[in-house]
Amino acid sequence: MSEFVVHSVPGSPFGRSVLIALEEKGAPYRLAALAPGDSKGAAHLARHPFGRVPVLAHDGFVLYETQAILRYLDRVLPEPALTPADIRAARMDQVMNISDWYLFQGVCNVIIFQRIVGPQFFGTTTDEAAIARAMPQARTVITELSRLLGEQPFMVGDHLSLADLQAAPQASFLSLTPEWAELTAGHPNLVAWIERLEARPSFKSTTMAELTARAQAA
Prior knowledge:
The protein is of the alpha+beta class. 59% of the residues lie in helices and 8% in strands. Helix 1 (13-25) packs parallel to helix 3 (66-76), helix 4 packs antiparallel against helix 5 and helix 6 crosses helix 8 (188-198).
């Protein structure tokens, strides 16, 4: 099987979604690591004109947009299947879009940037007002994800799907902020879901710490 190359910033939840999928599939891959800010450079813009991560390269085929990459991987690497074979695939699609449009946009891209990314990588000061403005949407998103999860082990039932791979890295990153405890206070099922996923080998091997250690050892 030819190697998959993932161009991403270690620690990016979008990049992590793709790496987790490759780990779950047992596929050979290489992380072409980018430093924070490199996605706006000429080399990466040639791969992704919008300057985002990740980008997948495979057998001369280059693809960006996380959802598109995940679906591509589930087609070219059909085992184990990460898309339900029944109508629950629609629920998977719904959760993936909630992750992109409501969990990331307006919540993670604000709270995580203000608490972690900005201060650690760009030397910015946390804007508490921006976080406060993001919290109403954050409460709505967490409440809805908790409702959709219910008592299931995974987002669309008894089996891991692309929905978990899309949403969990975002939620896991958000769990590193002080806002997480407040947001999930009434949603223990969502906390247990994150803990269940983080215990999987595919999640353990794609943390920022693990990817950094692997890069240093190479």
